[in-house]
Specification:
alpha+beta
């Protein structure tokens, strides 16, 4: 099944990039009508949009299907239990990780199980096209797929398009119950990440206009109108590693000896040059030979559909942010062949199967309403296999706040909603003179433009533009580590039994208080040149937190932290987090921004705006845990607190 993943990245030109069209959709399984009593249901394989009202009739028997049958392994329940135990500081098994080979031997599918799955699929008339330790991929016509999975295929209207989907929940022979985890690809709706088979050049150049502040408040916009009772500062040019390390308590730690992986789609052809140039220009330690690696697929696909060049900036941000905060960490970039779920899953699996790193930063996702249980199960299995090896996954929480303005429905993002990942929310950050941490608000921006006469801000504070994703899941149960920390008003917002609340932790995300990044871009004359611009989004927060975790892992002598949520929540209330609120000064906060109308220079005019901070849709950053910043951001003492474990 293709993945409609969203690239969570906000550039100061537009404060956020548009969400990518939908993938993954978790909901209540449709009623199952078996074709035989000796069948076992694969719950969640009939999508919620495949309703009787949308039914357009049976799919042609000759239509082609490409599917993946994911393997449950020989002890799925044991995998989840062990993943929990090794991640829980209160467990006697805490930190007793398995290596990749032992994890596969203990929990992976056996040769006999793989052979049984292949035999079943081929006997139905499907062709096996690939076998990995995670899945068996098959292709064939609809008639063969219907025979294999015990369900008819129908065409259904979804929006303005029509797609194929199972008319009933898919099933497998009873003898394969517990062997097959799920099947993806039976529906043909697009599941992709926004971001042919030759990678395109870098995107068109974008530059920020000044005036700027060099640190928060260093340059006051004295000639512009007041906001919140006084003059406001110009937006910073963009924080650099020295300022972020100071803000989040890096101390003398640099991430030495720690491996960090980054997953995105595609690969920037200029990443080594860009990252090296940026580090030298901004006082970060120079990259050492062999410190930056890339693990890339043999071929790229869907480059135009996915907007491959748009992913180059994402990779550049992630790599430069990790190095800026953890300059000695070893960084491996794992690029997916496309922005579709199957390819993104393959990239995550490469990290786990080869234990490429202990910490994995992921700046992509989509809305929960687009998540399907079949893919959610496949993702969670990878996260659990990572946890038993001491690998932790960090996912951006989203850039559209509660998603109401973007989708019309209040919801969280995925895979950040998984109970097996650390969801990273976002803040607006004030680093003052001498790199002193001043305050943070929850990231949420309202924009007001300068009036025609230049004497006031129009409709101040203006309309919501972007903000950190967060809120309460409608589909994922409340994990044990959130109980007692997350208020019931949030956990039980959608169910009396309690649900997962996002995020878990937070860091800088607001592009108005963002990070300076350097990237080779295409200029109007067609030349490609290195250029710098300010950037934000929870796509910044995720690699920053991943880098902070690298510092923490170094502090504990190199011992892997693994799935971090249990230890993060265990530290709540112990003074190692900044407790972020939306109005830390009590007077309201905003910055003045000046932008080139054409994104490049002043020839097209300048645009003036006031960007209010701490205005994240219906989400609020308050004292204690909240659904914008989780437990807060790392403070002095957070990194060092891991020395005790």
């Amino acid at each position: 099944m293709r993945s409609n993943r969203a690239k969570l990245r906000a550039v100061s030109m537009a404060a956020t990039l548009p969400m990518v069209a939908g993938a993954l959709a978790l909901g209540i399984p449709a009623a199952h009508a078996t074709d035989s009593p000796a069948r076992s249901a694969l719950n969640g394989t009939k999508p919620l949009w495949a309703t009787p009202k949308a039914d357009k009739g049976a799919t042609s028997n000759s239509a082609q299907v490409n599917a993946r049958v994911y393997l449950a392994g020989k002890d799925a329940a044991g995998l989840a239990a062990y993943a929990k135990a090794v991640s829980d500081p209160g467990s006697p098994l805490y930190g007793k990780y398995l290596n990749a080979k032992k994890a596969q031997a203990r929990f992976g599918a056996t040769k006999a199980q793989v052979a049984a799955v292949k035999s079943w699929l081929t006997s139905a008339g499907l062709k096996v096209t690939e076998v990995t330790q995670h899945y068996v991929a098959v292709s064939g016509d609809v008639a063969a797929a219907e025979k294999a999975f015990g369900t008819q295929m129908h065409n259904y209207a979804k929006g303005s398009a029509t797609y194929r989907a199972p008319a009933q929940t898919a099933t497998v022979p009873e003898g394969l119950k517990g062997t097959v985890l799920t099947v993806t690809g039976l529906d043909s709706a697009p599941h992709k990440a926004n971001h042919d088979d030759q990678l395109p050049p870098p995107d068109a150049v974008f530059k920020n206009s000044g005036p700027f502040s060099s640190y928060f408040g260093s340059n006051i916009a004295t000639t512009l109108p007041d906001a919140y009772g006084g003059k406001i500062p110009y937006a910073i040019k963009g924080y650099t590693g020295k300022q972020l390390r100071a803000a989040y308590g890096a101390g003398d730690y640099t991430g030495k000896g720690v491996r960090v992986a980054i997953t995105d789609a595609y690969a920037s052809p200029t990443i080594a040059y860009d990252a090296g140039t940026y580090a030298v220009k901004h006082g970060d330690a120079a990259w050492k030979t062999g410190q930056l690696h890339q693990v890339l697929p043999k071929n790229y696909t869907k480059t135009k559909e996915c907007g491959a060049a748009g992913w180059y900036g994402e990779e550049t941000l992630d790599v430069e942010a990790v190095h800026a905060v953890a300059p000695s960490a070893d960084v491996t970039y794992v690029g997916a062949a496309s922005c579709y779920d199957d390819d993104l899953l393959d990239s995550l699996s490469k990290v786990v199967d080869n234990h490429l790193a202990d910490i994995v930063s992921n700046s992509w996702g989509d809305i929960e309403a687009n998540q399907t249980p079949d893919l959610a199960a496949a993702y969670d299995q990878v996260f659990q296999l990572g946890a038993v090896q001491g690998i932790g996954f960090y996912f951006s929480s989203g850039d559209n706040g509660d998603e109401v303005a973007h989708t019309g429905t209040k919801q969280v993002d995925t895979p950040a909603n998984s109970a097996w990942v650390t969801a990273v929310g976002g803040t607006s950050l004030a680093v003052g003179k001498g790199d002193a941490y001043e305050w943070e608000t929850g990231w949420g921006t309202e924009k007001s433009t300068l009036s025609a006469d230049g004497k006031s801000w129009t409709s101040f504070p203006g309309a919501f533009t972007s903000g950190a994703g967060g809120g309460t899941s409608k589909t994922v149960a409340e994990p044990y580590y959130q109980k007692g920390v997350v208020p019931d008003s949030l956990a039980k917002a959608n169910s009396a039994d309690g649900n997962r609340v996002v995020p878990d932790i937070a860091a800088i995300a607001d592009p108005n208080t963002g990070f300076l990044v350097g990237q080779t871009q295409t200029f109007p004359d067609g030349s490609q040149q290195y250029s710098e611009y300010r950037i934000g989004g929870t796509s910044l927060a995720a690699p920053v937190i991943a880098a902070v975790q690298a510092l923490a892992q170094e502090a504990r002598g190199g011992k892997a932290i693994g799935f971090a949520n249990p230890s993060i929540y265990a530290k709540y209330g112990k003074g190692v987090f900044h407790d972020v609120t939306d109005d830390p000064t009590g007077s309201g906060l905003a910055v003045a921004r000046v932008d080139f109308a054409n994104g490049l220079n002043a020839s097209g005019g300048l645009l003036y705006s006031a960007r209010s901070l701490g205005k994240d849709s219906s989400l609020k950053a308050v004292k204690g845990y909240d659904d914008v910043t989780g437990v807060g951001s790392p403070a002095n003492g957070y990194v060092q607190s891991y020395k005790k474990h």
